[in-house]
Amino acid sequence: MMMKNAPSRVEIHNEWDIVRARQSGRDYAKELGFGNVDQARIATAISELARNIYLYAKPGVITIEVIDDQGKKGLAITAKDDGPGINDLRQAMEDGYTTSGGLGAGLPGVKRLMDEFDILSEAGKGTKITARKYLR
Amino acid sequence: MNLNILQGKAKDGGELLILKGELDAYTAPKLKETLLELVDIEGASVTLDLSDTNYMDSTGIGVIIAAYKKVCKNNGTLIVQGLTPRVERLFDITGLSDIITIEDINKEETR
Amino acid sequence: MIDQEQMYERYKRLLAEYMEGKNEETLYNGQLFSRHMIECGVSPEDVLSVHIEIMREFFPNMDERLESSFDFLLEAMIGYGLAYREHQNLRFKQRQLETEIDIAANVQQSLLVSAVPEIDSLDIGVISKPAKKMSGDYYHFVRDEQNFLSIAIADVIGKGIPAAMCMSMIKYAMDSEPEQRTKPSAVLENLNRVVEQNVDPSMFITMFYGLYNEKEHRLYYASAGHEPGFFYSSQKDRFEELTAKGRVLGLDRSTKYREYEKLIMPGDMIVLLSDGVTECRTKKGFIERGEVVDLIRKRMDRSAQEIVDSVYKELERLQEFQLRDDFTLIILKRRV
Ligand SMILES: Nc1ncnc2c1ncn2[C@@H]1O[C@H](COP(=O)(O)OP(=O)(O)OP(=O)(O)O)[C@@H](O)[C@H]1O
Ligand SMILES: [Mg+2]
């Protein structure tokens, strides 16, 4: 099997694209050697990020790439869009704030599913979210 | 603990709100929203029918006071009718009965 | 933290044991084990994944469709895992908030607790209990050099934190009254202006304010829409309502308050209360004011503090230990 070194880029325009992004993330995760649970976690995180783009900021792009941080291997997911941006990041990251409040999903959920999480957003300009998960 | 608010027209042509149930800290916000919107027009005329309000506490009085203050600003009228003895006593103690028009139960027919 | 390996082995042992014998004891051990896993913060999807791995080990030739059904279940459990973690975090936050409120409640208590003065001619008893953690009831006693005792009892509409914050404002307004011994009507008129200016239109405060002249044994008082107290005349051996009319604070800027006066004879009693006392809701419905009087009468020969404590206990019991509203009861008894 050929190692997927090149990043995968999935543009998000419709719900179908969310599925494609998930699939691509899962393939990468599997190949890198993530276990079943982590594969499912990564797919769910991608789903949440892609769905946010689809709901609030389409079109946008989900990028999935393999990272190697001094021998620490893992997967980085980037969600980038030029949408309206998120005004109050602290609020958006708060548990129980999301519209689905109480389901634990949404951005705080993504943060929990992954090992690292970073978000940059500017009102009117767009949002860039990066999340990483490392192989144990 | 529940409050039903029925909206209709009063005999004098103004708005009529019939409150059925209990007006307390939990249900008062619901009344506040409806009532304050109704009185927020110049010359608003609103009648509150309390004959089926079987419980009211100070939070309920608070909403009526807020509405009264708005009505005064807007040169409107606020009428309260059908006070049960318990509620009437509350109106007396708080001094609301001297400043708000209270009418006896001549229950309107809401149609 | 739980050791991954250890968890795997223990789960596997329990599962194998159960598949062999299907006995209740193993299930009980499984229950204890799951408690342990929860304590260690193991997510549902982790448990499931261990289960799946073990099944693969036990049944290497498992039907492929059965195997993929596990993957599907795993995917579905990820969401539950997230909800579970959020729940844990919210619980933690709730505990934090509660601690914060406890601290605020202590601050409020130290602000509001007013020492009961020792006076030769008066026996004074007070009890004030919040329905929730913070109280919207307020009382104070201030005694000046000329032997005048001022007594205030107030009730902010609503309960809990908003009422308590408003209460603190009243306390500072009272503390900054120009002189201690002012006419009750003037005190209320001042406060009325403060409240009218500073408070949300649907917020209001009721207050009873009294000034007791210890030499002449006269009580001068005025009320801003406060739940009327009682006066007990020992000569007539009768309780009557301590009527005083006046609008609640914050209703109308220009309100004037009428002042009343009462001569207090030895053995007479003044009962002041907040509506949390009279709005007691029991199984049989609301308590009548007459019942409160009866409770007091039954205990009349005791000290003022004993009376209020015991009346509170009785009313607390009647409400099945759930106060619906802040509760304040004050009794002043002229010593014989
Ligand atoms: N890419 C984005 N562009 C602009 N706003 C966004 C974006 N992603 C999230 N938001 C804003 O942040 C809020 C929180 O997002 P989050 O995904 O946590 O919850 P949600 O989408 O409201 O609900 P759910 O739990 O169903 O995902 C959203 O309601 C939305 O207003
Ligand atoms: Mg979302």
From TrEMBL, chain B:
Family: Belongs to the anti-sigma-factor antagonist family.
Gene Ontology molecular-function annotations: anti-sigma factor antagonist activity
InterPro entries membership: Anti-sigma_ant, STAS_dom, STAS_dom_sf
Protein name, per record: Anti-sigma factor antagonist
Pfam families assigned to the protein according to its UniProt record, in alphabetical order: STAS (PF01740)
The organism's place on the tree of life at top rank: Bacteria
Residue ranges of domain STAS in the record: 4-111
PROSITE patterns, sorted: STAS
From TrEMBL, chain C:
Species annotation: Pullulanibacillus camelliae
Record-linked InterPro entries: Bact_Sigma-Reg (IPR052016), KaiA/RbsU_helical_domain_sf (IPR017944), PPM-type-like_dom_sf (IPR036457), PPM-type_phosphatase-like_dom (IPR001932), PSer_Pase_RsbU_N (IPR014787)
The keyword Hydrolase belongs to this UniProt entry's keyword annotation: yes
The protein's name: Phosphoserine phosphatase RsbU
Residue ranges occupied by any PPM-type phosphatase domain in the UniProt entry: 123-334
Signal peptide as annotated in the record: none
Molecular function GO terms recorded: phosphatase activity
Keywords, in A-Z order: Hydrolase
